[in-house]
Design brief:
By secondary structure, the protein is of the alpha+beta class. It has helices spanning about 10-15, 25-35, 40-45, and strands spanning about 1-5, 15-20, 55-60, 60-65, 75-80. It has one domain (about 1-80): Beta-grasp domain (Ubiquitin-like (UB roll)), CATH 3.10.20. The chain has a 5-stranded mixed β-sheet with strand order 2-1-5-3-4, with no helix packed on it.
Length: about 80
Amino acid sequence: MNVFIPDALLSYTGSGEVEAGGASIGELFVDLDRRYPGLRFRVIDEQDRFRRHMRVFVNGIQTFDLGMALTPGDEIAIIQALSGG
């Protein structure tokens, strides 16, 4: 699967677009962490929830479900949300 990486995580991947696999979002992040150690922890917290400033989209649809099933042709985008006032 094609995974789009935000600028804030480029120090892990070295590229804004990488390949990874998994039957679910959770498995995808396990594979990403295997390839790019530490990346999963920057997106998913200790309670297995997306960190509040990170968003994940599958084929343009936002998800918060690590169990969401994926298919080989899916495109995943990790987005860093902006906050402030």
